[in-house]
Amino acid sequence: MRMKVVVVAMLLCPVAVFSQSQTVRIHAARVLDGTGKVLTNATIVIDGSKITSIGSGTAADATYDVGQLTVLPGMIDVHAHIGWHFDKEGRYAARRGAPAEEILYSAENAYVTLMAGFTTIQSPGQANDVELRDAIARGILPGPRILTSIRQLNENSGTADEIREKVRQLKKDGADVLKIFASASIRDGGKQTMSDDQLKAACGEAKAQGLRTMVHAHSPESIRASVNAGCDQIEHGVFADDATLKLMADKGVYFDPNVGVVLQNYLRNKAKYLGIGNYNE
Q1: 256 vs 234: CA distance, rounded Å
Q2: Range of the domain at 101
Q3: Residues 172 and 274 placed together within one structural domain of the fold
């Protein structure tokens, strides 16, 4: 059976949709409460920007009655490049445009992302993420909460000591998470590129600074090195084998394979990528 769904997106994001003193009641035929329960004929009560209760209620008492729709909490996308886009010719914009153009594309993507039901995203970084994140948090622009790495670290980021200093600088610059490239792109074979010592320096200093780490790693070797370095989350992991996945599980490392986004997106939009950089057949 197919069901129509509405996501409580605007209610869970920092945008000031309602005044802080206003109480709003939303009544729906079904509500997924985020704890595993499906409530029927339920009412969600929002005071200002906070959901304060979910329980029984009648449509007559509701500010909004969404009828037979199903309401669920806002979703989280843990790997979203909010500024990446196709240009006016419909091609992947591999090179950055003018600053005004870039921030406008980012703002457009933020709005579309929120309307799709995502109320939090983790962006593995570009410089204008900070301004976009802060504008959304102020209630100026509609968009999801943004957790950004601002920049990335890779094999060219320097010695272990230089990497530690760069992690400290990212913390000062307002990064929410640290993005690390431990391997080459899937389009270049995915081999390990950062040394074990570089990875230990990056993830060790990140922990000391209270920053989580997300690591681009495709090969089993790069994944194992990242896990053993104390990193928190593996991105992509296309060539992960059973032994590597078990090591991740044993160490409590999260796995974000980007299912439905990377390879499927490339194939669906093939004509928009082919011939740009290392995007080939």
Answers
A1: 6
A2: 74-147
A3: yes
Tell me the pLDDT tens digit for each residue of 133-178: 999 999 889 999 999 999 999 999 999 999 999 999 999 999 999 9
What does the angle CA 43 – CA 47 – CA 52 come to, to the nearest 5 degrees? Answer: 55
The C-alpha angle 164, 165, 169, rounded to 5 degrees, equals 120
Are residues 155 and 91 part of one domain? no
Pairing relationship of beta strands 50-56 and 38-47 according to DSSP bridges: antiparallel
Residue 51 and residue 40: Cα distance in Å, rounded? 18
**Domain containing residue 206: CATH number:** 3.20.20.140
- Residue pair 237/257 in contact (Cβ under 8 Å)? The answer is yes
**Parallel, antiparallel or unpaired: strands 152-153 and 64-65:** unpaired
Kindly report the average pLDDT of the chain as a whole number.
90
Give bridge partners of residue 50 from the DSSP assignment: 47
Closest CA to 106 of 88, 76, 133: 133
Residue 48 identity (one-letter amino acid):
G
Q: Pick 264 or 209 by higher pLDDT.
A: 209
- Chain center to CA of 238: 19
Helices 220-228, 196-208: inter-axial angle, 10-degree rounding: 40
* CB proximity list for 19: less than 8 A, separation 6 or greater: 48
